[in-house]
Amino acid sequence: PHDLLGGENHFDAVTEGVSAVFVGGSGRFGINDDAPWIPSFIDLLGQLADHGFPTFASCFGFQGLCVALGTQVSSDPERSEVGTFDLALTSEGSEDPLFRLLPEQFTGQQGHKDSADTLPRGAVLLARSARCPVQAIRVGGGPVYATQFHPELTVEDQRLRFTRYFDLYCTVYGQERAQKILDGMRPSTAANGLISSFVDLYVSP
After folding, report:
1. Considering 81, 134, 157, 172, which has the largest number of Cβ atoms within 10 A of its Cβ?
2. Tens-digit pLDDT profile for residues 32-82
3. CA–CA gap between residue 183 and residue 75 (Å, rounded)
């Protein structure tokens, strides 16, 4: 794995000797934080998109890619999502080589307070949710994908994560709502297959 906090965050250093780049979420950092490494991280995501290098980014990575492509990411409590949420493919998603493997309606694990305000330049909208209309994108015609939801998290992972920080969530949401979020978590089997399908389509061949 590449250390974004202490490594060289430029295209050649990150892609040397690898076939694809995967960027996950961050519970500690927000894309609008003033951490010294975040600008170079955003620039790296823009370079990956410009080169059409096989990339799959989720949550924090999704937000970084959106900023790199000129879209503002804002904190909006009305669009925050924590737990399991229903998502829907767009018409473009139903025709996309990767996302057409999903059903038109599917579930995804979520954990974000920041959201992309608009669709980034050069991006195709692949999926949306009721609260957050920009949930998944493909950039250009190349294999560069990003999701606001977490395909790498199973419902078991999500429950473990939420339980570990349950006291914090009770502080944020109140105990009753936090328990309701935990009890409402559901499997996200279709979404959990996205990354392996990405590998099959764009890396293994």
Report:
1. 134
2. 898 899 999 999 999 999 999 999 999 999 999 999 999 999 998 888 999
3. 25
